[in-house]
């Protein structure tokens, strides 16, 4: 019983240490992890797992269950205000057009990495950014300055039609009855439209989709495209 208690304490210490280390490393998404970062994470995971290695299968299984429960517990704790500040609070790295150096250092992010993240979002000039927030996932959310903001339909006083869902009714020559039912159409309707619009059959279609307005888009196999020209 004493051995099991020691094993539980060991698991809890490792969970706490791993959480502290990953928070110390800073917020990074998978796409932003460098080969060096990845190598270090592998080493950390191996070192963390070593104390849990046991020839006793019961202890090993118990340790795995305990680690799984810890993930659920941490997810629940992250909903609490106090824990949110420690684990889940985003970082404002550009505020009112100025770089927040303290937040950059806190998240171990260089100017080069910041500029790279901005370019991925389509902003090549730092002068165009009013606010930039580094999320806990490692992604960056941007509020551009008014002069750099993309034009919207409301700016042009337009009233565009609402977006509608589309359903793949044919994939690789195979009909999806379920997709047809979703848009309240029949196989007979589809066969008729294919014949009228494309002089094609279901087996001739690589991909076809229909939206809620019953607008049909069809992409034929290459040989059938050439035949229909």
Automatic annotation (TrEMBL):
<keyword id="KW-0812">Transmembrane</keyword>
<keyword id="KW-1133">Transmembrane helix</keyword>
<feature type="domain" description="YetF C-terminal">
    <location>
        <begin position="86"/>
        <end position="211"/>
    </location>
</feature>
<dbReference type="Pfam" id="PF04239">
    <property type="entry name" value="DUF421"/>
</dbReference>
<dbReference type="InterPro" id="IPR023090">
    <property type="entry name" value="UPF0702_alpha/beta_dom_sf"/>
</dbReference>
<feature type="transmembrane region" description="Helical">
    <location>
        <begin position="6"/>
        <end position="26"/>
    </location>
</feature>
<keyword id="KW-1003">Cell membrane</keyword>
<keyword id="KW-0472">Membrane</keyword>
<dbReference type="GO" id="GO:0005886">
    <property type="term" value="C:plasma membrane"/>
</dbReference>
<protein>
    <recommendedName>
        <fullName>YetF C-terminal domain-containing protein</fullName>
    </recommendedName>
</protein>
<dbReference type="InterPro" id="IPR007353">
    <property type="entry name" value="DUF421"/>
</dbReference>
<feature type="transmembrane region" description="Helical">
    <location>
        <begin position="38"/>
        <end position="54"/>
    </location>
</feature>
<comment type="similarity">
    <text>Belongs to the UPF0702 family.</text>
</comment>
<feature type="transmembrane region" description="Helical">
    <location>
        <begin position="60"/>
        <end position="79"/>
    </location>
</feature>
């Amino acid at each position: 019983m004493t051995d099991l208690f020691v094993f539980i304490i060991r698991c809890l210490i490792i969970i706490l240490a791993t959480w502290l280390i990953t928070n110390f490393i800073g917020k990074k998404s998978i796409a932003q992890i460098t080969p060096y970062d990845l190598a270090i994470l592998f080493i950390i995971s191996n070192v963390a797992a070593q104390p849990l290695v046991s020839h006793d299968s019961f202890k090993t299984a118990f340790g795995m269950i305990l680690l799984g429960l810890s993930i659920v517990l941490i997810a629940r704790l992250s909903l609490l205000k106090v824990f949110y500040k420690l684990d889940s609070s985003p970082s404002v790295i550009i505020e009112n057009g100025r770089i927040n150096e303290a937040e950059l250092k806190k998240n171990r992010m260089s100017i080069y990495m910041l500029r790279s993240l901005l370019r991925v979002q389509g902003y090549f000039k730092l002068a165009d950014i009013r606010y930039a927030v580094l999320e806990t996932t490692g992604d960056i959310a941007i509020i551009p300055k008014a002069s750099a903001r993309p034009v919207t339909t409301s700016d042009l006083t337009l009233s565009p039609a609402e977006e509608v869902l589309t359903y793949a009714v044919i994939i690789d020559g195979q009909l999806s009855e379920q997709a047809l039912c979703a848009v309240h159409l029949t196989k007979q309707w589809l066969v008729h439209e294919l014949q009228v619009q494309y002089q094609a059959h279901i087996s001739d279609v690589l991909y076809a989709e229909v939206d809620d307005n019953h607008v049909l888009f069809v992409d034929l196999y290459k040989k059938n495209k050439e035949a229909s020209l």
